[in-house]
Amino acid sequence: MAESPVTVTREGAVARVTLTNPKRRNSLSEDTLRRLLAALDEVVASDATGVVLQAEGPVFSAGHDFADVAARDMVGVRELLALCQSVMERMHTMPQVVVARVHALATAAGCQLVASADLAVAADTAGFALPGGKGGWFCHTPAVPVARAIGRKRLMEMALTGDVVDAKTALDWGLVNQVVPEGELDAAVDDLLARATHGSAASKAWGKRVLYAQLDRPESDAYAVAAEAMAAASQTDGAKEGMSAFLEKRRPSWTD
């Protein structure tokens, strides 16, 4: 039996979802996307508080598998893109914090994976590209989350030129949160994830959901969503414990 192109492992409260098909440059075939979605669902059903999305081999992910795409008609390609969208959206809807660990080149839908993660740490050896601008199949769907991370003009540069953006530029543009030497990548990922998951897990999960719900809305609509959520959240056990601990000048004791 062939090895799975995606694996899930646990290290304490952290789940590691790994793309393990370096021979195919961790390309996102239908099988890989389905296994990636199943892996994320597996983490959702667990008691993990954080997820590291990582990859093996010389490329983080080369995006869609052209052998898979070329064999499909338009309906089949639509189905593949819908599956890919489900993976990206799952990272937003799952309660756990998702950190992309990017050690190497992430192109097209591979770059889309990075942009869709909650947080991203890149090695200084990493690169990012929307290469459809150089070819015949434009990176329409990968551009959706990338645009929301880096803004219009920078998106246009990436999408129209297809050029590789180095890690330092990706940091300056807001595509990743940190860039570190490759040898320090694991430590930086672990540190960021620890800081992003401390505190009440239930509060963090709700907070993440509401952040995504209000992003890109008009300001008044965003306030309406955020205010209602914040009012409701004030009555949760986590909020009450956090406020009590602050007022009583003690460390909080989280029950969730």
What can you see in these coordinates?
With 256 residues, the protein is α/β, with parallel strands linked by helices. 49% of the residues lie in helices and 17% in strands. The protein has eleven helices and ten strands. The strands form two sheets. Strands 1-2-3-5-7-10 form a six-stranded mixed sheet, with helices on both faces. β2, α1 and β3 form a beta-alpha-beta unit. α1 packs parallel to α3 and α4 crosses α5. The model has no long low-confidence stretch (mean pLDDT 95).
Q: Report how far the terminal alpha carbons are from each other.
A: 40 Å
- Unreliably modeled segments: none
Pattern of helices and strands: EEHEEHHEEHEEHHEHEHHHH
**β-strand amount:** 15-25%
Q: How many helical stretches?
A: 11
Q: SS-based structural class?
A: alpha/beta
Query: What is the general shape?
Result: globular
Radius of gyration over all CA atoms, rounded: 19 Å
Strand order of the largest sheet: 1-2-3-5-7-10
Largest sheet, in brief, is: 6 strands, mixed
Strand element count? 10
Helix content: 40-55%
Give average pLDDT, whole number: 95
Describe the structure in brief.
The chain is an alpha/beta fold and 256 residues long. It is 49% helix and 17% strand.
What topology does this entry show?
Elements (H helix, E strand, L loop, with lengths): L5 E6 L2 E6 L10 H15 L5 E6 L3 E3 L4 H5 L3 H20 L3 E6 L2 E3 L1 H8 L2 E5 L3 E3 L13 H8 L1 H10 L3 E2 H7 L4 E3 L4 H13 L3 H14 L4 H15 L3 H11 L9
Parallel strand pairs: 2-3, 3-5, 4-6, 5-7, 6-8, 7-10
Antiparallel strand pairs: 1-2, 8-9
Helix pairs in contact: 1-3, 3-4, 4-5, 5-6, 9-10
